[in-house]
């Protein structure tokens, strides 16, 4: 992570820039599938370094330590609106619109959803807040621990995880017999909600919303918690740990992700004009000052 001028934090979110899965063939952003290594391409090199660092450090013990640290919810207090405004300082270097802060992507996503699902106000708000967990970046977390694809720890790494086994060669759990089998520490078909996911902004925001008693429907919480779990919902991995009931979660995530990945609007929304509508939704579903 590096600090940009005017106190903006420059971050790279590989989940939004490069997608290797076949399911994204023919989509508008062709670079999604380009994970080739090129030392002369600064974007590809940053993405590679981000994932290699993540995959080296993301062990069961590491995730437990992050859960112990963050899930006390004693780090700061902010309203949802204040947290969104803080994202104005966050510039996602993985987005082709490199000068646009995260809050613009948030409103673009929300407005596209609102256009297609005008009666589902909870869905509009989900699009607006889905990246709010990235506020961890302002409180000492390195970018590889905030952004990027997620995956379960405590079992064999999925075949479709970007950069594959080579990126996990320095992760001690790779060689731990408790964790390196197909099921590892889990029972077969234990269900997605019983998996310990790699730590990042998805899991953190989900936990914040539950802790603060948000009234968003379960479908919204699933969208937030698993939208970066590409090795499952796009790569097809981990079917031996999933139940039939989890198909509902997958449908929700895929419904949301088309707006997260492909909201590439040429125009910047009039955020000030939109605030009153979304403030009403915040008051309806996630009111007051939240514990983070």
TrEMBL record:
- Pathway listed: Polyol metabolism; myo-inositol degradation into D-glucuronate; D-glucuronate from myo-inositol: step 1/1
Q: Which GO terms describe its molecular function?
A: inositol oxygenase activity; iron ion binding
Binding note for cofactor: Binds 2 iron ions per subunit.
Give the record's keywords alphabetically.
Cytoplasm, Iron, Metal-binding, Oxidoreductase
Q: Which residues are listed for Fe cation binding in this entry?
A: 105, 130-131, 201, 227, 260
Which amino acids does the record list as binding substrate? 33, 92-94, 134, 148-149, 227-228
Instruction: Kindly list the places in or outside the cell where this protein is found, as annotated in its UniProt entry.
Output: Cytoplasm
Pfam families from the entry? MIOX (PF05153)
EC class (word): oxidoreductase
Per the record's keyword annotation, is Metal-binding included, yes or no? yes
* EC number assigned by the record: 1.13.99.1
**Which cofactor(s) does the record list?**
Fe cation
**Domain of life, per lineage:** Eukaryota
The protein's matches in InterPro entries, at most eight in alphabetical order, are given as: Inositol_oxygenase
Q: What GO cellular component entries does it have?
A: cytoplasm
Reaction(s) this enzyme catalyzes, per UniProt: myo-inositol + O2 = D-glucuronate + H2O + H(+)
Per the record's keyword annotation, is Metal-binding included, yes or no? Answer: yes
Picking any one GO biological process from the record gives: inositol catabolic process
Tell me its family. Answer: Belongs to the myo-inositol oxygenase family.
Please identify the protein, giving its name as recorded.
Answer: Inositol oxygenase
């Amino acid at each position: 992570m590096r600090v940009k001028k005017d106190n903006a934090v420059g971050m790279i979110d590989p989940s939004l820039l490069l997608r290797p899965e076949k399911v994204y063939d023919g989509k508008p952003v062709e670079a999604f599938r380009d994970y080739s290594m090129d030392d002369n391409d600064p974007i590809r090199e940053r993405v590679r370094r981000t994932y290699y660092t993540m995959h080296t450090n993301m062990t069961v013990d590491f995730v437990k330590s992050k859960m112990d640290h963050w899930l006390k919810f004693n780090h700061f207090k902010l309203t949802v609106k204040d947290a969104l405004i803080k994202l104005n300082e966050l510039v996602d270097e993985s987005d082709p619109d490199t000068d646009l802060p995260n809050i613009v992507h948030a409103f673009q996503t929300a407005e596209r959803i609102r256009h297609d699902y005008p009666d589902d106000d909870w869905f509009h708000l989900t699009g607006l807040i889905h990246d709010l967990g990235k506020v961890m970046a302002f409180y000492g977390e390195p970018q590889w621990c905030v952004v990027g694809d997620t995956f379960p720890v405590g079992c064999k790494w999925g075949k479709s995880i970007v950069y594959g086994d080579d990126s996990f060669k320095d992760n001690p759990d790779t060689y731990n017999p408790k964790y390196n089998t197909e099921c590892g520490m889990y029972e077969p078909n234990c269900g997605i909600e019983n998996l310990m996911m790699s730590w990042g902004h998805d899991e953190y925001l989900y936990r914040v919303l539950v802790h603060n008693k948000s009234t968003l429907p379960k479908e919204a919480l699933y969208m937030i918690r698993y939208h970066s779990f590409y090795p499952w919902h796009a790569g097809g991995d981990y079917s031996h740990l999933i139940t039939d009931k989890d198909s509902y979660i997958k449908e929700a995530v895929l419904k949301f992700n088309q707006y997260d990945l492909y909201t590439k609007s040429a125009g910047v929304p009039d955020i000030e004009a939109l605030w009153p509508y979304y403030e009403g939704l915040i008051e309806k579903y996630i009111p007051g000052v939240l514990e983070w």
